[in-house]
Amino acid sequence: MAALTNFVAFVVLALSLFLAVQARNRHRPSLDYEDRNEEDGPNYLIGVGRGDVTGPAAEVNMMGYANPSQQSSGIHFRQFSRAFIVMDPQNTTRTVFVSVDCAMISQILKIEVVKKLKPLFGNAYNESNVCLSSIHTHSGPAGFLQYVLFDVTSLGFVRESFDALVDGIVASIQRAHDNVVPGDIYLNQGELQDANINRSPTAYLNNPEAERAKYDGNTDKNMVVLKFVDQHGAGMGMISWFAVHCTSMNFTNGLISGDNKGYASLLFEADMNTDSLAGQGSFVAAFAQSNEGDVSPNTRGPHCQDTGLPCDLETSTCNGKSELCVSPGPGVDMIDSTRIIGEKQYSKAKELYNADMQVELSGPVQFALQFVDMSDVTVHFNSSYSAKTCKPAMGYSFAAGTTDGPGSFDFTQGDTDGNPFWNLIRNIIKRPSAEEEACHAPKPILLPTGEMTFPYAWQPDIVDIQLLRWGQLVVAAVPGEFSTMSGRRLRDTVQRAVLSKGLPDDTEVVIAGLSNTYADYITTYEEYQVQRYEGASTIYGPHTLAAFQQLYSQLAQDMVMLDGTFLTVERKKDDGTFEVVHNDASWDTMFKWKRTNPVLGYSEATVTWTISPDTPSGTYRIRHFGHSKNLLGEITPFVGSSRQFTVSA
Asked: In the predicted model, is pLDDT for residue 46 greater than 80?
């Protein structure tokens, strides 16, 4: 080991990844709640709260369908933010999951929410332990995102829409904080049939046959329900995760609505909050979003509006026109369809909530968050093959819309060729670089948004990925709309990662869709080749999903492994991820700390790794995990990393 014998890394760089301290590792089997021994005490501190986020009800463009003619013109029912605080009673590590009745979450929205929480609670709630997830209703006011593409149809930023969301989300978290009590959380799951269909079945069929054979259908039917009870067993709240678009209300609707998931929440809350008006009462029920990217609530399937015949399967057109191909819901009209799909979700969730046999969650509360430049991720498939993500770009089929809300002109889904006329129009706006076209192939680029900066950025490069853990449940908060198979692959990836680090075999992973940031769609590599609407809207290119899998795998391992150690020595594997080979329990490592400025409170940490002769050759890094304290005494976890370095014989 002539190259490196006593490598000393001074690690003081604070990164954006914040990780909670694991306090305990206690797991219990499934049981009937009535059989629980109350002498054991509650596993968590929990709080729930609700806030009104209803925006301007007149003459503001609605977000979701990107249709300039869809203007708000009244209210069907109000929109709400529903917050759930989960704390570890042993060390007060806390997390907040918030389900919001809006189209998506913008970065600027979360930034402002965290900013407003700080004077109320100090650093108790920050960007790392707060998760904002939208239900993806298409019937709420637009204009609350900071990227050009998402504000085109609303003609820019709409302060009234933004303020209503911020104030309502903050109010829901504040109410949850004020209501924190000792309690427990129970998990149940089951299948809900006849409430969703796949709106891009030809893309789904392009996934490997062996992979498709592992599942019963081309959409996820599984619903996961969490039951929140206080220490006396009284119900406090419920979260349901089920994958289905909130597009029961179509683009002709002008009434503000939480769509099918918002209605399901109203039904559940009305059932639990006897004699309370809608949106009031102490029990809070959230019907959160999951991997709904290619999943529609309009279960009668796509038909031609002029003939009543099925649409062309490959292009979703009728006589060559996308506008005529629409998938109706199960009801007599869109309001009736909203009712039906909402009632189905409510009924299944109530059944799972009331079931005798449920899994009692117990164990650590943890969280992890990382900011990533998704336009420049190298994906390592094996030791000899890697690929990169791309700058954001939208494909031709994006303009074709979907069978929930078709586009206009002569755009069609499944377009891998483009069009000379629209290329000419595109080039007037911005011609994509040759590098960008090659990176996104076979997507024909309609808008090279990653190369468009006037008057400011059109779509995000930097996104945040986040994980929450409540005992045996890991919540993967994703910054976009994962397709059915993409969600399945990510769940499997995260589950493998946490199980490899010692979590129990019964650990469940759920996808919390459209969380914290909106980066459009995420399809599988195979689905991307077909270039349906979802593939055309996968903005970082064909390897987007693989990049997210690699990132979430590493984040999951970090979240689980960082408990109880000040350092790790990690070796790079063939797939580009790192495995921990030493921690501060190892003979070969040392962690030293000293105060360098008592007045300002500065200190310095030194991590030493003495490389033993039998250390395998490879690429390594050293990481340090610590906590910083500001002048107010608020403590925040951080992680620092050395550069990557080579160890050779």
From this structure: yes
User: Is residue 642 within 8 Å of residue 630, measured between CB atoms?
Assistant: no
Q: Which two tokens stand for residue 234?
A: 């009284």
Instruction: Extract the tokens encoding 564.
Output: 């109880």
Distance CA 490, CA 372 (A): 17
Token output for 114: 């965290």
Cα three-residue angle 194-136-373, rounded to 5 degrees? 125
Instruction: Report whether 245 belongs to an annotated binding site.
Output: yes
Buried b (16+ CB within 10 A) or exposed e, 206-244: bbeeeeeeeeeebbbbebbbbbbbeeeeebbbbbbbbbb
Could you say which of 133, 172, 296, 483 is catalytic? Answer: 296
User: Is residue 627 marked as binding?
Assistant: no
CA dihedral 578, 580, 583, 585 (to 10 degrees): 180
Domain boundaries, the chain: 44-372+463-562, 378-451, 567-647
Helix, strand, or coil (residue 115): helix
How would DSSP label each residue in 22-85? P-------EEEGGG--GGG--SEEEEEEEEE-----EEEEEESS--TT-EEE-BSS--EEEEEE
Residue 322 φ then ψ, to 5°: -70, -30
Active-site residue 296, yes or no? Answer: yes
**440 carries a ligand binding annotation:** no
136 is in an annotated binding site: yes
Q: Of the given ranges (40-44, 341-345, 489-493), which has the lowest mean pLDDT?
A: 40-44
Report the candidate in 547, 482, 526, 440 with the shortest Cα–Cα distance to residue 204. 526
> Which DSSP helix (H) or strand (E) runs through 422?
helix 420-429
The candidate with the shortest Cα–Cα distance to 105, out of 140, 65, 137, 145, is: 145
Give which of 443, 444, 439, 427 is closest to 391, Cα–Cα: 439
Task: Return the axis-axis angle of helices 159-178 and 107-121, rounded to nearest 10°.
Answer: 40
What is the distance between the alpha carbons of residues 276 and 284, in angstroms, rounded to a whole number?
12
Give the fold, CATH level 3, of 567-647. Immunoglobulin-like (2.60.40)
Q: Check residue 20 and give its pLDDT.
A: 30
CB atoms within 10 A of CB 445: 27
534: which 2 tokens? Answer: 């979802």
Q: For 517-567, what is each residue's pLDDT tens digit?
A: 999 999 999 999 999 999 999 999 999 999 999 999 999 998 987 866 788
Q: What is the mean pLDDT of the chain?
A: 91
Q: At what angle do helices 544-561 and 484-500 cross, to 10 degrees?
A: 30
